Amino acid sequence: MANQLYKQVLFFFFFFLSVSLLQSKSFNLKKPCKHFVLYVHDIAYDGDNKANATSATILNPMGLGDFDFGQLVLVDNPLTMDQNYLSEPVARAQGFFFYNGMTNYNSWITWTLVFNSTQHKGTMTIMGANPIMEPTRVLSIVGGTGDFLMTRGIVTLKTKLVQGNKYFCLEMNIKLYECY
Ligand SMILES: *[C@@H]1O[C@H](CO)[C@@H](O)[C@H](O)[C@H]1NC(C)=O
Ligand SMILES: *[C@@H]1O[C@H](CO)[C@@H](O)[C@H](O)[C@H]1NC(C)=O
Question: Among 86, 91, 93, 118, which one is most buried in terms of CB atoms within 10 A?
Answer without folding.
Answer: 93
